[in-house]
Each structure stands twice: as C-alpha cells, then as structure tokens.
Design goal:
Elements lengths: L20 E5 L9 H17 L4 E4 L13 H9 L6 E8 L5 H14 L4 E6 L6 H8 L4 H6 L1 H13 L18 H4 L12 E5 L2 H10 L3 E3 L8 H11 L11 E9 L3 H19 L9 H6 L4 H12 L2 E3 L1 H15 L3 E5 L5 H14 L6
Parallel strand pairs: 1-2, 1-9, 2-3, 3-4, 4-5, 5-6, 6-7, 7-8, 7-9
Helix pairs in contact: 1-14, 2-3, 3-6, 8-9, 10-12, 13-14
Length: about 375
Amino acid sequence: MDEIRGDEIRGKAEGTATVPLSALDLVTVGQGRTATQALRTSVDIARLAERRGFHRYWVAEHHSMPGVASSSPAVILAHLAAHTERIRLGSGGVMLPNHAPLVIAEQFGTLEAMAPGRIDLGLGRAPGTDGATAAALRRSDRLNEGADDFPQQLAELTRFLDDDFPDGHPYARIHAVPGPVQATADGGVQSPARPPVWLLGSSGFSARLAGVLGLPFAFAHHFSAQNTIPALDLYRESFRPSAVLDAPYALIGVAALAAEDEREARRQVLSGALSMVRLRTGRPGLVPTPEEAEAYAFSPMEREFVDGWLANIVHGTPDAVRSGLDELAKRTGADELMITANAHGGEARLRSYELIADAYGLPTA
C-alpha cells in the first residue's frame, strides 16, 4: 500500500471543542435560488470552514433531487480545491456501486494532484437516489448485485489506487492516472501518495467492513440516529489494525443549525423538515422557504415524521447547539463531528457555521 499517514485521517480539536469539527455539504438549493448560487455558497462555507479551523469539508453524492445540487462530488471538489488552501476536501460520499472503480481512482487521483495531501475518498454502498435513477446510473436494474458486490468493488478500487494488481490479473497492465505508476516510470517524480479511503454507512454492514479492513468510518447519524451507537460499537469491536490506522477512528455526520435565537433556528430547520417530508412521499423539490414551512398544514402522519426528524437536529442558540454537540460526542464516543446545516438560504447556513465556530472559540484566521 502506498503511503497513508494516520495524521491525514485524525483531526485536531480546536478552541474549546472536545473533538475535531468538520462540515458536510449537500449543496442545497432553495426555492427562488439557483444551483449557481448554491455552489457559490459552498465555496463561501468551505472558505469559512478553513479560516475557522474546521478539519475537513465533504460533499455528498445525490441524484434526481431538485433541492440537492451535489450529483458530481469530484467536479465540486475540484472547484473547492481551487478556492481553498489548507482544509481537507472529500466525498461523503461517492456511491461506489454507481461507478466503475477505475473512474473513481482516476477522478480522485486527479484531485490529489490538484490538492496534494488534502483529499479524502469517502465511499458509500447506497445509490444516493431512488431505484429508477440508480438503474439509469448503472444501466442495470439488478441493483442488489451492486450493493452485494461492494467489498469486491472496494478491493478493485484500492488496487487501482495503489497500482498493485498482481501479475497475471486482467487489470495488471491498467493504471489509474494520475497515480503511483507515474513515480515508477522513467524519469517519474509523481508522488506515490493517494487519498485515504473512508467507508460510510447508516447501518452495520460498512461498520463491520471498515473495522475488518482497518479503515476510518463515517456514520450518517443525521438520518439514521437510532443505529449510531450499535454501528460504532460494531466498528470498534471489528477493528483490526492496518497500515492505515493502528486504532479505530470514527466520525459521525450531525445535522445542526445555530441562529441568534431559538425561534429563528426552529424556522430554518422546519423548512428542511418539510423538504424531507416531500422527498419521503415521492415529491422531491427545492427546499421551501421558512415562511412556507410555517404555514404548511402537516397531516398527523407528517407531523409525527417531522417531530422525529427535528428531534435529531441539534438546533437553537449557539450555546444550545454547542451543548448538544458536546453531549452527542460524549454519548457516542465519536472521534470527530461532521456538521451539516440544511436550510433554505445560503445565508442561514453560512451564519450557522460562523456561530458554531464562535461558540467553540475556533480560530478567526
């Protein structure tokens, strides 16, 4: 395996935070806004995160959702790399069954060449969309096969990243470029380093696999809170030291939004909750405004869903959000918190990250 140091994975807590803080971006698009505006907001948040001492900034692959403009993580990450200098950038994640492993190795090798030592490759097993869209992406309706083949796809991708298929393998003479092969070519000076691989999950499958392989693990607490502790326990119990890590390292994605007062925070997260109601009932659209969400007549079933959804979003004043995040870190034992702030407008999302940074006394430059 090519060189991957643990310090490329483990973050450093800043200010008064007990664990490193990072950011997860879905590049959300609100009503009356464009994808161009959403992507500009992503640059603004990435720059703020870098300036304020957040450890990493990830974007997540989704498809066929009007309110989420992150269908092409590699493209977005290249754009963010051009507008930042230090912060780690990565995918949270790329959905491996949607892509040929060689393509991902080429894309992330290119990103590593653009931003050396700053790229993370987070991989998921789900399609990041509905079944019909997944079938269009994969040009196959045998979707379960893609998920079941995940360990084999992961092994193939790792071989491409490390350029170490054994002699006699059908792919032994195929190289992901940019990549390690350039260091072995005549006159080659290309760095052999490559992005660290993370496994993402919302259940136990990837938790166990990450542990067995000695890889870092990221759990989607923000939409699967009931499975967080069981999955993290399984990861730690399954962990075997590897060339990548000598001890488990797990981050959790956390939905959190801070505002100057509790009512405003509630207004902002309610618009995201209504957006989820529509998505879960087959009506995906742009993220509604807080005004529309406040005026919406939720059915009893929808209200039950919204109450449960909001219960897992840490929201309120900056002090309240800090307390909620600290309690969550303590309860789960997570090594890192990756905060996602979903709201209608980019201004509210940007302000939330700023307020959270202030609450923890994170660096200001």
